[in-house]
Amino acid sequence: MEIYLIRHGIAQEREIGIPDEVRSLTNKGKDKTRQVAGRLYDLGVRFDVVLTSPLVRSRQTAEILHEYKLSREITESAHLAPNGSIYDWLDWLKAQQYPQQTQLALVGHQPNLGQWAEILVWGEDRARLILKKAGIIGLTLPETDSPIGQAQLFWLTPPKFLL
Amino acid sequence: MEIYLIRHGIAQEREIGIPDEVRSLTNKGKDKTRQVAGRLYDLGVRFDVVLTSPLVRSRQTAEILHEYKLSREITESAHLAPNGSIYDWLDWLKAQQYPQQTQLALVGHQPNLGQWAEILVWGEDRARLILKKAGIIGLTLPETDSPIGQAQLFWLTPPKFLL
User: Fold this and answer.
1) Which residue segment(s) compose the domain that B112 sits in?
2) Where does the sequence pass through the membrane (chains A, B) (predicted)?
3) Residue A40: closest CA among A141, A146, A136, A154
């Protein structure tokens, strides 16, 4: 299985009175995310499902991937919210029994996505992966009960190399 | 300092009677490497120096990077040959006293380059990074006596995402 960890685009700054979960993409964030989505389409990247954090900035990022026909399906996953746990998500993933050739996009937040990638690839998180807003990490998960420390990294890119 | 580990392009197969060090890029390997170099140029990637393994297939790859004006300088480094040691290379690097903003390309072979990247980022090699021929790994080395286990990964791409 291939998973693509995609960080949401540039969003409104944190501000007193605006709950974190409703911060939305700025116009610049939308434009850049659209450019990334268009380039992914041209590169032939496709997803069977886009899973997204329920927070507005991630949801909007996932909708842009959908608009650009990278996936027919968007599903919200509370595991991808900033307080989500990769272990809970892996339990959920196992229960789905997706076929091995499935390609999933996971749209969410930092530091979570970088931590998840490092835990999947090296079994622990050392904050060594730089994942920019609208950036992507691509991992291959082996067919195994637990992919922790067993995944391979085939892609990590900031958006500037996708424009 | 940023270092870009670049694997040589597609080369002639191993064959009895052809020493490994003279195997050269195939026409397809040259074409693909040229496409990658052109895209790197358009993306604004530049190197102060291209260091290359002395083996013909790496040397040719480095020359293509030079033809596409990614760097004005190519230097052979025996440390980048298949039996080279990252520790010896780091000693060499320290002696150069390059300024912190230097951008170096290292053209060489697998499994070496993937191993070097993992040793720089996580302190050990677990063969978890997939580096295709003409693929690239981008690392930021901190200003420190030994960057082992201290580097950050900002890019890893197969050539298919650079065409």
Assistant:
1) 2-12+19-161
2) none
3) A136
